[in-house]
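Quick note —
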Amino acid sequence: MGMICPQYKLLGLGHGPHAVLLLTISLGGLVASGCDRPATVQSLSPSKIQPVQSPAPVIPAPELTTLAPAPTTPRTDSTRPTPQPSAPVDAATPLPASAKPSSYQANPVAALALPPKPAQAAPRVPIRVAIAQQSPYLVIGSSTPATVVDQQGQAVKKLVPTSAENVIVQGGQLQIGAQSAPNVVWIKPESATGLVYVSGRWYRGAIQVIANRGKLLGVNHLDMESYLYSVVGAEMPASWPIEALKSQAIAARSYALAHIARPANPFFDLGDTQRWQAYKGVETEAHSTLAAVEATAGIVLSHEGAVVESLYAASDQIVREVHKGFGMSQNGANQLAQQQYSYQQILAHFYPGTRLAWLQFSS
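Predicted structure written out below.
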């Protein structure tokens, strides 16, 4: 059940006039990678937890972060810090004389040039993220009224807000609460602002549940930018400088696009753990992570006309040992951002020889 995605192109700078860099994203497509990385699937060990007995648990109320202005008074909720002020992004602006070079860079680095922003808005690229693998059961719900539909879009069951249903596999088919269902269903909120609850976390978009060899596979279908809201906050503390968060957003977007072109599984593009990129639904969203993603929407790292699989890790040591020296140190990005480096300078330091490009639909 592979998903055929539309074609996209990269708008970037060539060696002279503006050049159009083409990227085809389709099932089985190839993307240039800065470092080989196995795309095999790691299955989770089967859980010994038995299906939840009725009555079903009450779902906690979701907290959906938006781009509304952050509160001006101090908050006690440490998971929703207010965003840091953004440093200037102009590549021609020199570093302040008072800024001390970080241990990662003895001298100021050149910034990656960003081509002029195209008139066309950045495409909303769909992505499929496995949020549950080899699960004996799932607990599902919705923040708003939602419908469970089959593969043909026919309604199977209605979900009532703030209540939960257990999903198990029985006889190769799904059972949702006391109701039988096909072996593949979709959970779709009826409101655009609705969130889906799956076994402890809230998610944007829709959830696909698949009966697979007696266990359950849960796949979150959503657009790339909504996915990145969570990834940036899961991979970096949301309280870090905005330029570090922007660097993380671009690296994570490029990495995800590489895996859309080379999906891990016929049912999903990548998983939600650090084996791929950490993704925890709206739990790790914050005003600052949304701001970083929106400020860099559509920007990717490219090399010779293809998206770079922009690897990264927590420290320089891990980058050297695991990624053979190619990739971004997240702690290093934080340190550089604290020294007033822009995201373009940070990315130039960790991904030398790459370019920034805009992702656009191919005409």
